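Bumping with the actual sequence this time:
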Amino acid sequence: MEKTWCARDAAAIGAGVPHAHHLFDETPLRAWPPWRGVLAVARRKVKTPAHAAGMDWISDLPDEILHRIMSFLNARQAVQTCVLSRRWRNLWRTVPCINADCKEFDFFGFRRSEVEFKRFVNRLLELRDPIAMMDAFWFRYHKLDTDTTSSADTNRWISHALQKQARVLEAVMYPCHLLDLDHSSFTSRYLRRIGFSGVRLDQGFFKQLEAGCPALEDLFLHHCTIEDDKISSQTLKVLTIDRTYFLIAINATDVQKKSISAPSVTSLTMYSPEGSLPILKDMTSLVTASVSFSEFRVHFDANDFYQYLWSLSGVTNLEFNYQGPKACRHVSEK
């Protein structure tokens, strides 16, 4: 199909589906087809019998299967399927998995792409079917400045996803500026997995997470900044902390120690932490651990090192890597 057909068809059905038409007004169509992957492959594999010329077999599939197919598409690509036929007109409004990627807007130019991406996601969430729940919400985004409105937009998206009972939440921020996360919206009995990259977790985040998200089992942090003094959870089973900075807090006398207390965690990955080395406490269920850190990136003393090793003594499968000078713990004789 040619691009000219797409624009004509989108305009033709726009009168019946003003929601999609407005979204297309804001995000021009690329060359057709707009997707890559499972939908295009599925259409190629479907063989139309000679006696059923012109039959659209994919459109005859149940909504649940079509939603499954659309969940492999980026959000912008999923919206664009509304031009396929009347059957597809409103399917994008109830897709349970949303994958919003700012790279889909790179053709606008770096700075304008940020504006267009925010506009698109705001409209997408606004125009979704209000009774449709959400299973997963994932977005990748870059902030070009420290304007707080950018964080306000992303925090509003997260709050919307949690209100729609999302079980999986992933936010990936480019390393230009960290996302200042508003932890007050983290109240959900459905949320099971969180993945954050390039996010700042302020004081009180983990306390809110423990109280407000009782079903959370998997937490993945990458290139984040943790200001909280204590990571505490009774429900987490998998904890991954990758190249994350633990902010060093200094009180009147000494450095405030960071700690991790998660008695239900069975799998821990701690790769190249920076700032303050967190002390592991109450890790009684830990079975598998992969720990790697360097003295040149993280602050600790010999006692911290000893306590860290002791907390891993009951692990069945352990991978441990330390880079730095020999650490000695002096024990006074009685």
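The tokens above came from a reply further down the thread. Residues 1-19, 26-46, 330-334 have pLDDT under 50 and may be disordered.
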